[in-house]
Amino acid sequence: MSTKPMRQQVEEYIVELQDTIVSAFEKLDPNAGHFKRDSWIRPQGGRGQSCVFPPSSSDSDASSTSSILEKAGVNISVVHGDLPPAAIKQMRADHSSLPYDAERSLPFFAAGLSLVVHPRNPHAPTVHMNYRYFEVTDPNEVDAEGNSKILAWWFGGGSDLTPSYLYEEDAVHFHQTLKDACDGHSPILFPAFKKWCDEYFYIPHRKESRGVGGIFFDDLCDAPHKRLPGESEQPDPSRPSSLEDIFKFIKSTGNAFVPSYLPILEKRAKAESTEHERRWQLLRRGRYVEFNLVYDRGTKFGLATPGARIESILMSLPETARWEYMSEMGSEEGSREEVLLKVLRTPKEWV
Amino acid sequence: MSTKPMRQQVEEYIVELQDTIVSAFEKLDPNAGHFKRDSWIRPQGGRGQSCVFPPSSSDSDASSTSSILEKAGVNISVVHGDLPPAAIKQMRADHSSLPYDAERSLPFFAAGLSLVVHPRNPHAPTVHMNYRYFEVTDPNEVDAEGNSKILAWWFGGGSDLTPSYLYEEDAVHFHQTLKDACDGHSPILFPAFKKWCDEYFYIPHRKESRGVGGIFFDDLCDAPHKRLPGESEQPDPSRPSSLEDIFKFIKSTGNAFVPSYLPILEKRAKAESTEHERRWQLLRRGRYVEFNLVYDRGTKFGLATPGARIESILMSLPETARWEYMSEMGSEEGSREEVLLKVLRTPKEWV
C-alpha cells in the first residue's frame, strides 16, 4: 500500500494515462504526425500539459486532409490555490465536513485529465472523458511530513460517446467496457452513473441528449452519496468509499478508455463517407458546441474564472461546426439520421 | 398624428421594414434565389415570419456556392401572453410604474424585428440589427375602444457590424449613417448608445469586442434613463420621450439599416479572397458563436423559455464556424488579422 499523499498519486497517474492515450492515438495513425505537447504554468499555482491534434493548422481546406482525427485534445492540469468563502459555502451541500466562515478562504488542490476527440470520418463517434480529484485542506494543521490536514476530498469524472451515425454494436461495446470497469468495484456504480450521464449530457432546448451516454459522476467520497441507492445514512458497504479504494475505481475507468474507444475508432475511420454524411456530422458538431457553451458546468465555470486558461477550456470545441435554419436532415423517416435522433430523444440501456 | 394603438403601429412598421430589407438583399444578388418566407403561429398567442437565406441547404460543399450571402435571417415576431410576477419584479428596476404583486401576472405584448446577415466573402462584414417594443397592460382597465390601459412601455434595439477584415471607411460609413439617424432626434443619443454597444457586445473570456460597434439601447421610454447624461430627475428635454417621438426615432434607425450596410456589402462581396482569409473568417465566426451562446441576453433568455421558437433564436448562428487550439492567426505583427484584433481590443470612435 502506497504511503504517498493522494495528490501525488493522482498526479503520477494522470501523467502516465495521458501518455498512454496519446501514444495509442499516434500509433493508430502513424502518418498523421504527432500530437503537439504544450506545457504551461499557472502563475497563481500549478501546471499542466495539453496534448493537441492537429499540431498546427494550415490554410488548405480541411477536406484535403486524410488524418483519422480532425481535432483532439488530451489535457492534464494540477493546480492549487485559495477557495473563497462563497465557493466553500456551495460545496458544503455535498461535503458537510467543510467548515464555513464568511471571512476565511481555504487552500484547494485539483488534479485532472480531460479529453475530447473529434474524428474526421462521420461514421466515427466523438468521445469525451474527464477524471478529477479535488481536495480542501486546513493550512493550520500540518503533520510531521509537512502535509496539511485534508478537510474534504472527492473524485469526479466520466466518459461518454457522441456518434453522428448510430452503430448499436459500438454503443454496446463502449458501455460494456465501462460497465466491466465499474462492476469490478461494485455493481451499484454503473447503473447510477449511466443514468446520471444521460441526465447531465442533455440539451433542453433541443430536447435531445448530446450523445448515446456512458458514465458521469461527481462528489464521490467516503460520505453517503445521494445518487447511489440506499445511501441515506452511510455508503453502501459494497462500493469503494475510502480514498484508496475510490482511486482504484478511478484508475479502472481511466484505464478502460483505450479499450472502450480505440477499437471503435479504428473500425469506423476507414468507412466510406459521402458529402451528405459529412454535412450531418457538422450539424451534430453544432449541437456539441451548443451543449458545451450553454450548459456544460466545467466550461461555464472556466469561462467565468478570471485567469483561466481559455484555450484549454475551449479545446473541447470541434474544428468545424455547422448550423442550418430548420434543417430537413434527420426528419426523413427511416433515414440513418433519424435513427440517431430517436436514440438521442429516448436514452437507451445498451448493456 | 395617428390614433392607432402603438402596438398596431409597430406591427405595421416591422412588417414593412422586413419586406424592404429582404427585397434589398434579393435585388443585390438576383441569381441567388429568394429568401424563404416562413410564417409561424405561437400557440400561446402571437405570430411571426422568418425570412431566411439560403431557402434550403444541399449536400454540396459550401465552397462551391457563389451567392453573396452565406446565411441570413430577417425575423419579425408579434407575441403576447402573461408575465409572471418574478419577471415583473425584475422589470421594476427600470420601470417603476409597474405594480408588483407576488400573486398576480400581467399581460404583455412584444413586437420586434431582428436580423443577422453573414456574407460569404471574408471581406464583407457580418451585421446584426434588432428593434423591439414592449408593453405591459392592466387587464382590468379597458377604454371605450377596448384597449387595455398601458402600465409600462419601452423600446429597445440597435445595430452593429462585425468584420473579419477591417476597412476603416466601412466602419466610418456604418457609424455615420447611424449617427445621422440618431442626431435627427437628439445629439445625446448616439454617443450614449455607441458606448453601450461597445460594452454589450464584449466577450470577456477573449478580452475582445464581438465587432466594431454600432448602437445598442434598451428600456427607452418617458422616464429618466440611467444611460443618458443628466437624466437623474427627468428625461433630457432635447431627446424624444413620448411614445410617438421614440417610435419616430426607432423608425429612423430602422430605416437607416439599408443605407448603412448594403453599400458596404455590395463593395466587399466582389473582392478576391484566399483560403487564408476564409479560414480567418471562420475563426471569427467561432467567436460570434461564443458571444451569442455564452453572453447574449436575448439568446440565453430564449433558450431558457419553454415553448420558445429555437430555430428563430439560433438563426443568428453562422452556417460554419471554426475553432483551432492556440491559433497563430492574428498574432503576426502588422498582419491584417492583427489589425482587426487591435481594434476589437480597444474600441474606437469612428465618427
TrEMBL record, chains A, B:
PROSITE patterns in the record: COPROGEN_OXIDASE
EC number: 1.3.3.3
NCBIfam families: PRK05330.1
Stretches the record annotates as Disordered: 36-66
Gene Ontology biological-process entries: protoporphyrinogen IX biosynthetic process
PANTHER family per UniProt: COPROPORPHYRINOGEN III OXIDASE, MITOCHONDRIAL, OXYGEN-DEPENDENT COPROPORPHYRINOGEN-III OXIDASE, MITOCHONDRIAL
The protein's enzyme class: oxidoreductase
Pathway: Porphyrin-containing compound metabolism; protoporphyrin-IX biosynthesis; protoporphyrinogen-IX from coproporphyrinogen-III (O2 route): step 1/1
Record's GO cellular component terms: cytoplasm
Ranges of biased composition (kind: Low complexity): 56-66
Keywords: Oxidoreductase, Porphyrin biosynthesis
Keyword Oxidoreductase listed: yes
Subunit and interaction comment: Homodimer.
Pfam assignment, any one: Coprogen_oxidas
Family the UniProt entry places it in: Belongs to the aerobic coproporphyrinogen-III oxidase family.
Domain of life: Eukaryota
The protein's name in its UniProt record: coproporphyrinogen oxidase
InterPro entries hit by this protein: Coprogen_oxidase_aer (IPR001260), Coprogen_oxidase_aer_sf (IPR036406), Coprogen_oxidase_CS (IPR018375)
GO molecular function: coproporphyrinogen oxidase activity
